[in-house]
């Protein structure tokens, strides 16, 4: 599961490098114009807060990840996430929430007009010569940004090597340092 979160984070980095996303300081609500935001704390939430697990949402693995289970049963996962109360100001402290990475997956799909898996194949998996992969998705066709990405151990090692080499693979910059 958490390997998938790392891949999603890398994909956000690639999306920034390629100009699909401006930077990690962009406000999350701006990617979802169809939602009316009335929560003063939610309007402060940035992409980097989702990436750093510092969104501030009351959402935790301590309680068996009940929020993830509730989100999975809801009709609208973004609306569910946007309705969660906050326990802290975004960026202030660590607050584990798998739903953070669902919002990142939605942002990737909205900005690139590709599924996360298709984007990953084009900009990460093909350049690293990956084998077969599979990534589960929800009812809207959005890949689970928090987990459920199936890769070979060998391909996961390639991701580790990419990171250790400052984003380079065979002397080609795949993602910025």
Distance, first to last CA: 24 Å
Given the C-alpha coordinates, what overall shape results? Answer: globular
Indicate the mean pLDDT: 94
Q: Rounded to an integer, what's the Rg over CA atoms?
A: 16 Å
Spatial strand sequence of the major β-sheet: 1-2
Residues in β-strands, percent: under 5%
Structural category: mainly alpha
Order of helices and strands: HHHHHHEEHEE
Largest sheet entry: 2 strands, antiparallel
Outline the low-pLDDT stretches.
none
- How many DSSP helices? 7
Number of strands: 4
Helical content stands at 40-55%
Can you give a write-up of this model?
- This protein has 177 residues and is mainly alpha-helical.
- It has helices at residues 2-17, 47-51, 66-73, 77-83, 98-112, 116-125, 153-164; strands at residues 134-135, 149-150, 168-169, 172-173.
- The strands form two sheets. It has a two-stranded antiparallel sheet. Strands 3-4 form a two-stranded antiparallel sheet.
- A hairpin with a 2-residue loop joins β3 (168-169) and β4.
- α1 packs parallel to α5 (98-112).
- The radius of gyration is 16 Å and the shape is globular.
- The protein starts with a helix and ends with a strand.
């Amino acid at each position: 599961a958490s390997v998938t979160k790392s891949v999603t984070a890398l994909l956000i980095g690639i999306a920034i490098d390629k100009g699909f996303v401006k930077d990690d300081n962009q406000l999350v609500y701006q990617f979802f114009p169809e939602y009316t935001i009335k929560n003063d704390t939610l309007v402060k939430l940035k992409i980097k807060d989702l990436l750093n697990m510092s969104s501030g949402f009351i959402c935790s693995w301590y309680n068996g990840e009940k929020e993830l289970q509730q989100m999975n049963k809801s009709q609208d996962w973004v609306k569910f996430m946007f309705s969660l109360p906050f326990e802290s100001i975004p960026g202030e402290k660590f607050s584990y929430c798998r739903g953070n990475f669902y919002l990142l997956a939605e942002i990737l799909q909205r900005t690139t007009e590709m599924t996360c898996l298709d984007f990953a194949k084009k900009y990460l998996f093909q350049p690293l010569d990956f084998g077969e992969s599979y990534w589960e998705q929800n009812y809207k066709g959005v890949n689970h940004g928090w987990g459920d990405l199936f890769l070979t151990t060998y391909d996961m090692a390639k991701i580790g090597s990419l990171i250790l080499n400052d984003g380079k693979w065979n002397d080609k910059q795949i993602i910025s340092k």
